[in-house]
Amino acid sequence: MRKSLYRHTAAWVLGGTAIALAGCAALPGGTADERWADYKNWTKITEGKVQTGDPTGFIGNVHKGPNGYRDVYVNDIGAAMLASEGPYNFPAGTVVVKEQYDNQAAWESGEGAGVTVSLKMTASDDLSKDNWIWAESYTSTAGESAFCSGCHSIAAKTDYVFTNGAFLAAH
Fold first, then answer.
1. d(C-alpha 16, C-alpha 95), whole Å
2. Average pLDDT over all residues of the chain
3. For residue 32, what pLDDT is reported?
4. CA distance 145 to 130
5. Which of 1, 44, 61, 119 falls 20 to 30 Å from 16 in CA-CA distance?
6. Cα 86 vs. chain centroid, distance in angstroms?
7. 71 and 17, same structural domain?
8. How many domains does the chain have?
């Protein structure tokens, strides 16, 4: 009887753990770099704005494509610059996190977000892709990315960042 009770208790505890973990599925899983691990506590630059479609004409299938929904967060280092109307030259240490959702229902529930990260590593008067590194997910290691920098080069005049105060004001 004692073994049976133990097995049922263990199963209940393990089952409860599984339910608790499933309840956290909406949060990005894994271990993130400490530079962006707490991004949900940062300034949400898209607060109160529905970000979907392809207003730049360059999104293609990236960041969940034109039918995806996106939210953008920035750390305290870059918040004032990102919210401004420009000109843009972000300070070193700026971290921008973009959450991407497949559709409006996922965005509204906050579940299943893909996460990409941009980090400004070097302060410079010259706007250059070489000042930035990128991570392709919440748990990725940030580094140089020809794919990311190639696309973000289209936004070279705004220091390689598409979603900023001027962009949000226009869209």
1. 36
2. 81
3. 92
4. 10
5. 1
6. 22
7. no
8. 2
Quote the Cα angle for 147-171-41, to 5°: 70
- Same domain? 16 vs 57: no
101: CB partners within 8 A, 6+ apart: 64, 68, 69, 70, 107, 112, 113, 114
SS3 label, residue 26: coil
Residues 91 and 166 both lie in one domain: yes
Q: Burial, 74: exposed, middle or buried (Cβ in 10 Å; 0-12, 13-18, 19+)?
A: buried
DSSP 111-130: -S-EEEEEEE----SS--GG
Residues of the domain holding 14: 1-28
Copy the structure tokens of residue 19.
């339910």
Q: Is 42 in the same domain as 108?
A: yes
Q: What is the pLDDT of residues 57-101, one digit of tens each?
A: 667 777 767 789 999 999 999 999 999 999 999 999 999 999 999
Instruction: Select from 11, 47, 42 the least CA-distant residue to 117.
Output: 42
Residues 69 and 2 in one domain: no
Question: Looking at residue 124, what is its pLDDT?
Answer: 94
Residues 76 and 19 in one domain: no
Task: State the residue for tokens 């748990």.
Answer: 139
Tell me which H or E stretch contains 48: none
pLDDT at 6 over 50: no
CATH of the domain at 113: 3.50.70
